[in-house]
Amino acid sequence: MNEIEKRTGTNTLKLRLENSSYSSCYRCGLPWNKCESKSITYFETKLTTRGIFAMCTYCWDHSSLDERLHHYKTLWYENNNRWNYCYDWSVIEKNIIAESN
Q1: In the chain, is it the N or the C terminus that has fewer CB atoms within a 10 Å radius of its CB?
Q2: How many domains does the chain have?
Q3: How confident is the model at residue 1, as a pLDDT?
Q4: Which pTM was predicted?
């Protein structure tokens, strides 16, 4: 199945049901084991880099800056509400904008 077919009709739903232990792309809904995630760095040192991924690379490549910001901010809010732990949205936003240019 090619990248477009995976995201057509009920294919996404079927793949999510078959792979229910995986979270998924916020735009197309594909589980992470069926697509490649697009990670945006929110913390970096010489020893470690941490990132957040809300979209797959296919959706990243086929979306606008506003869409990208929307999906990553949605995940950012969910993470903060779920774990009551906050990383800096302005860093993520800056990196999304930089990678979009």
Answers
A1: C
A2: 1
A3: 83
A4: 0.90
